[in-house]
From TrEMBL:
Locations listed in the record: Cytoplasm
GO annotation terms (biological process): nucleobase-containing small molecule interconversion; pyrimidine nucleotide metabolic process
Protein family according to the UniProt entry: Belongs to the cytidylate kinase family. Type 1 subfamily.
Protein name: Cytidylate kinase
Gene name in the database record: cmk
């Protein structure tokens, strides 16, 4: 008899703190579903740019979103992302999407529709969801909330290394400036800004390895019955 509790784990934090890497592995260990909500904002941004919609135009973005199907499906190496039936997993990581996504994610209308869709995805439990407002807006009653941080220098270094491995040319200082700019927009927006939920456990991963982070969160999940 399996008594594992299908809890909901909310993982928030700034860019490149290691959320999706950890979330994917934690979900694997627990047999949970992993959901990267950033991919949903990225997919809308990608479609908006393709359709020459201004990321500042809330009403047009909202209309576009209402006519957009975003699907997240488990793949061999993480989550696959589909836009209106076409796979866009790689495309949504492109630089122009990264540079515009925080402006798209500012808008009340966009966020309320995204949150509505995300809440549908979590209703059966057994999930690890990562983003910026998961513990504060999407699953305010999550059984486990983690706020994952690391210094901006370390986060930029991680993204830089990731780019190097993928053969993408980038400059460490430019990357850090981009990350800091996005964090600033995300943390200062009026609608569900990036903040630590009062009841979230803060995890500074600056000096932690990926497996240390995964083990720590898995331990906390086990304390809440998820084993
Ligand atoms: N604790 C860690 N130590 C070193 N590198 C890490 C750690 N966590 C994540 N990384 C690496 O940092 C990069 C960014 O991680 P990612 O999970 O994409 O961050 P986020 O989802 O928070 O934006 C990835 O290349 C990942 O392999
Ligand atoms: N729950 C979420 C998730 C992402 N986002 C927005 O989407 C952007 C991209 O998120 P992401 O998780 O893919 O970012 P990375 O840290 O992986 O680069 C963030 O910078 C936020 O502007 C959000 O507003 N709320």
């Amino acid at each position: 008899m399996n008594n594992t509790k299908k809890i909901r784990i909310a993982l928030d934090g700034p860019a490149a703190a290691g959320k999706s890497t950890a979330a994917k592995k934690i979900a694997e260990k627990l047999g949970f579903i992993y959901i990267d909500t950033g991919a949903m904002y990225r997919t809308l941004t990608y479609k908006a740019l393709k359709n020459q919609i201004d990321p500042k135009n809330e009403q047009e973005l909202y209309n576009l979103l209402l006519n957009t199907v975003i699907e997240l499906k488990p793949g061999i190496d993480g989550q696959l992302v589909y836009l209106d039936g076409k796979e866009v997993t790689t495309e949504i990581r492109q630089q122009d999407v990264t540079q515009n996504v925080s402006d798209v994610a500012l808008h009340q209308l966009v966020r309320s529709e995204m949150v509505r869709r995300q809440q549908e995805l979590v209703k059966n439990g057994g999930i690890v969801m990562d983003g910026r407002d998961i513990g504060t807006a999407v699953i305010p009653d999550a059984e486990l909330k983690i706020f994952m941080s690391a210094t901006a220098e370390e986060r930029a270094r991680r993204r830089f290394e990731e780019h190097q491995k993928q053969g993408i040319e980038s400059d460490l200082h430019v990357l850090q400036a981009e990350i800091e700019k996005r964090d600033h927009i995300d943390s200062t927006r009026a609608v569900s800004p990036l903040v630590k939920a009062e009841d979230a456990i803060e995890l500074d991963t600056t000096h932690m390895s990926i497996s240390e982070v995964v083990n720590k969160v898995t331990e906390l999940a086990a304390d809440r019955g998820a084993v």
